[in-house]
Amino acid sequence: MVPLQGKVACVTGASGGIGEAIALALAGAGAKVAICARREDQLARVKANIESQVQGCNVLVHTTDVTRRSEVKGFVSAAEAALGPVDIMVNNAGVMYFTHMAHLREDEWEHMVDVNCKGVMNGVGAVLKGMIDRGSGHIVNISSDAGRRVFPALAVYSGTKFFVEALSEGLRREVVGTGVRVTTIQPGDVSTDLVVNNTDAATAAAIGVAIGVRIGVGADVNAVLQPSDVAGAVLYAVTAPPHVAVNEIMIEPRDQT
Ligand SMILES: NC(=O)C1=CN([C@@H]2O[C@H](COP(=O)(O)OP(=O)(O)OC[C@H]3O[C@@H](n4cnc5c(N)ncnc54)[C@H](OP(=O)(O)O)[C@@H]3O)[C@@H](O)[C@H]2O)C=CC1
Ligand SMILES: CC(=O)[C@H](N)C(=O)O
Question: SUPFAM superfamilies per the record (predicted)?
Fold first, then answer.
């Protein structure tokens, strides 16, 4: 079954982790896929991976920093020129730093706001008018369970994900009647490299989390999600019948408290 045949999908932050899995799932469902992130070598790896698994697929790759509005518009323009109008925009790029605020990692605070908040706004801004003009389109914002409750040492990160929730809910209410749908996905712990570049070892030790390694290494299989689990939630939302709005999906490992 190819439920997304003829559809065009853009995925930000698709050089690994959840974004890679989402791009693979959308391509597997028949969509023409464009991916972006900053690391060219990893984007090339993802393109090769998807094309080896999905017959006839040709993934468009665009090096993009989502904090730069012009680059996100450039990504969408490149996708539209090569593939056609964007039907599905997945704003997935994100960063997370475990850090206590008293440690004043102000650069990390700002980086989270820039990528997680401004990056999502830039993604919305690049596709919204076209979707409204065409009377159809689906914006999927990758939030977090941290967009629903605040976790230790994630004050700023949780703030950014609460922002994603508020922006998405506000947008959804504004576009009612236009044919555009908006979904947030709120994953719990997923086995990715999200905290590999964390540096606040004192905070990590204090709250008992592992940084500098892939999330979930050594964890019980029921205590961590795989990126493909999150991709499945995205696929559910974007393949729902046109009259159905899947506004939010919280998906956590069975044994996460
Ligand atoms: N893993 C988890 O437990 C959870 C993750 N999430 C969310 O899922 C999303 C994906 O994270 P995940 O896959 O886990 O983490 P990864 O670190 O594996 O992936 C993050 C992706 O974002 C990209 N990215 C980061 N900064 C930028 C930027 N400035 N411009 C463009 N792309 C950027 C990275 O690419 P590059 O470095 O090449 O630019 C990479 O492709 C994030 O929004 C995260 O908050 C939500 C809940 C749980
Ligand atoms: C709060 C969390 O750690 C969540 N798994 C996320 O990475 O967003």
Answer: NAD(P)-binding Rossmann-fold domains
